Amino acid sequence: MTAEHRTPSATSPVAARENDDAPTLADVVEAADRLWPFGTQESWDASELVAGRPGAPVRRILVAVDPVSSVVEEAIAVGADLLLVHHPLMLGGESSIAADRYKGRLIHDLIENRIGLLACHTNADSAAAGVSEVLIRACGVGASRPIQPLEDDPATGLGRIGPLDAPVTLETLAARLAAVVPPTAQGVRVAGPRDREIRTVAVCGGAGGSLLETVAATEADVYVTADLRHHPVSEAREAAMHAGGGLCLIDLSHAASEWLWVPVGAAALAEELREAGFGTEVLVSTRRTDPWDFHVPSPQPEPQDRWE
């Protein structure tokens, strides 16, 4: 990540406290609901308040992608009253939060340090200024629309699609994204001709494989997402390389594709609370939470047409 794209560190608040009137945890949840309505989350999701007393004061919030050990440690270190994460901690049908299990240990660490936990997942994905909106802006798209709009609000929904402000090659777009997302072991993977002209971009922050067929039926030249599987990518690449068209693919790390939203979401929450008369500090986590630690390069620096 280049210096010009760094976000404020955990010791540099997005919004400095302007007064001593702290919101309650319930006030913060209501503010989050105004920004990223919880009612828009997918049916399988668990975007909600996970831990914390609704009446507890919240003077400092830490925003992150993942509720993992390093982030919880950071929340304790900076004296946060609330940890707001994108990915829910309790999404697997857990029946125990005993501290001898890692999820239970995290919950205990938060509660014992009087830190609430709030998850804003697919509701933040679908929001008008949510995860996918931030990602497509990073691509160079000014005006976009949802790929899968919500029935009651077609301006919101999963994914985004729109024209680039100026056409670029596929390689240039991939390099543009590599320069702004956090560095990961995976890097940025691309399927399609390097010099393919890209005019229209579709994106879905996080795992967007379920929208691949929908995107392929649109005018998009490239689909930017994460966690794509071998067979769908292989089929799309065949069309892009050999059929004189087709959909190119850019596969980012899951966490990296969503991290761009964190500072934007933190700033939006700080402003929402400020307008409500509160001066809560909203901090951006500095911890890398992509689960892959390193990769070993292949002996050949560039992919070859033959395996020999």
TrEMBL record:
Keyword Metal-binding: yes
Record-level Gene Ontology MF annotations: metal ion binding
Binding site for a divalent metal cation: H86, H87, D125, H254, E258
Keyword Acetylation: no
Keywords tagged on the record: Metal-binding
Chain spans, region Disordered: 1-23
This protein's GO CC annotations: cytoplasm
Superkingdom classification of source: Bacteria
Family recorded in the similarity comment: Belongs to the GTP cyclohydrolase I type 2/NIF3 family.
Subunit: Homohexamer.
Protein name in the entry: GTP cyclohydrolase 1 type 2 homolog
